[in-house]
Amino acid sequence: MVSPDAAAPVAPLQSLPSFARVKQFLKDGLAAGRWAPGALMPSEAELVAIFGVSRMTVNRALRELQAEGLILRTQGVGTFAAPLHKVSSTLTIRDLHEEIVGRGHRHDARVQLQRREAAPPALAAQLGVAAGAEVFHTLIVHDEDGVPLQCEDRYVNPACAPGYLGHDFSRVTPTQVLFETTALWRAQYAVEAARPTAQEAQLLRIAPDDPCLVIVRRTFTRDAAITIARLVHPGSRYQIEGQFEP
Q1: N- or C-end of the chain: fewer Cβ atoms within 10 A?
Q2: pLDDT confidence of 6, banded at 50, 70, 90?
Q3: Considering only CA atoms, which of 201, 237, 240, 236 is closest in space to residue 217?
Q4: 116 and 64 inside one domain
């Protein structure tokens, strides 16, 4: 349980979106050692009462913290602070729009492709669907202050996000949509330095032999693959940073 005094959100949090206020409150508590690794944290019902927000809002905050490796959730039991070794080995899933806006810059998305496609065997295996089954495909270039920062080539399992193609991805990112509409449970990453494809080089406005940071990410519910995305960043414009404090 959390006492009212300890749980009351501090003034700077009020300027954040509702889910971000809940998320930051919990992150601050973890950083301050309020909940030791393995300790039981506030329940969804407690957080709804503390912040006066919906259960869906609280659930989004908890899903993002879980994706970042900061908490563990067990259905029917509760939410627990993650062991430190798990936190230190986790790569964060962040929404690129929020990342860019957080730097005080402008984010624009250029949608190149948004459609249904038949999944070839290799892709079908990655998404856990039958070969030839319909999947959703989007190709989007994300710009920061008019400069291409990321080429996002994403396939989505329709069973996990049936309304995915109905969104305007020039106004909302796929990451935002999937955070809000799916039950994210875990993620897999592969990160490498590689050259872009000819199409990626053209979309990112770089030379074909320019080095890029390529991240391939799959996310899952408890029992199904949600999406697989290839995220290509010009090496001269992007880096991954992190920190760990025992």
Answers
A1: C
A2: very low
A3: 240
A4: no
